[in-house]
Amino acid sequence: MWSDSYIGTVNPTTRLRSSDLFSAHNSLTILNQATGAWTTVGYPPKTTSYFVPAKKADWFWQGGGYLMQPSAGMYQIKIMLLEWTGLFKLVGHSVATLSWPSLAVSSITPVTGLNTTLEWGTKILHEGNYYYIYGLKDPGTDTKTPYVARMSSLTYLTNANKWQFWNATQGKWLAGESNATSMTGVAAVTPEYSVDAMSYNGGTFYLMSGMDPQNPAYPLWDAVTTWYSCSPQGPWSNKTTVYTAPEAGANGCKTGTLVTYNAKAHTEFTDADGILMSYNVNANTGSDLVCANDYKPRFVRVQIPGVTDANK
Questions:
Q1: Domain spans, the chain
Q2: For residue 225, which of 191, 192, 264 has the smallest C-alpha distance?
Q3: 198 pLDDT tier (thresholds 50, 70, 90)
């Protein structure tokens, strides 16, 4: 699952694209387990966004996804979609339902009961009797703070009136998005952070993974960071820089420099070499985006001794 995407080919020698203008605001790729080949869904010939809002001038960026089984032998994928205008203004949330294994879009349904002060859906986590959905308040500064809500069933994913929102001040789950407060222990984190249940020494803890947008300041963000908690809603502690992105501030292929951001963990791929994490690399100068290496995610393995994925 990707948001802004270049879909097509690059010169295998120079790594140059035909244009620095990307063609899609979202896309999906699938892995053929037998051959190891990756395929972009719909390509060729499709090079445009896989999910398109009813208002064509807007676009969807993707949030978290979840595979569910509504009935025996039937599977669906739910994907959170955030709708933006050309002025980068959030105007709504929706949920895409995809059939499996075709990945055909069965529906795109707006989420009711939310305003647009918070961005919801960076991660959906199923723990115990609840599905936790993580979000962010982004005032356009480096003080981007994480939020969380929960629901008792994924059937409520499109109805936030059925959600409970964490209020860290009162230490309670409350109805109504206006009662939500940021989780404690995280001064700031970039969008697309992740929260996962992990195991250590026979017990379960929760791992938040992201990038610190305050130290260092933009455009030199480089600190892939983790926090720990004993519950999905925090409080969070043990802030640790687990990797420093070497691309931050480096020269682009032509005139500008590079920026890194939006780190997250992919704990389902945890193995003996560590936890798989990714972060985005982008160019501060648009003309550098003609170079494929200046706009693509990076993947690294991070060792946290004794830690394993709690769902394995």
A1: 1-50, 58-183, 190-312
A2: 264
A3: very high
